[in-house]
Input
Amino acid sequence: MNDSTVTEIAVQAILLATKLAAPILIVSLVIGLGIGLIQSATQIQEQTLTFVPKLLGVALVIVFAGNWMLAETTGFVTHLFDMIPRLLHS
Output
């Protein structure tokens, strides 16, 4: 196993983490922005008001995209396990 292989695996892991976190972060950002606009329009400055809608939004994303997230993670781990013999012989 050489440096380029380790770098390739690290880049793939970072890209996978980015792909998996993106839907959750985008939904949380959109909900936070919407609640922030409502708070500024109504002048209600309660910090905990955004927590429940964000929690529900993230839960919905996990319910709808959880299967895809699990499949992506499983595929990556399977690919890593398939690479073990090749890495040990080099």
Notes: The chain has a mean pLDDT of 92. Helices lie at 3-42, 51-89. Residues 35 and 50 are 6 Å apart (CA to CA). DSSP finds two helices and no strands in the chain.
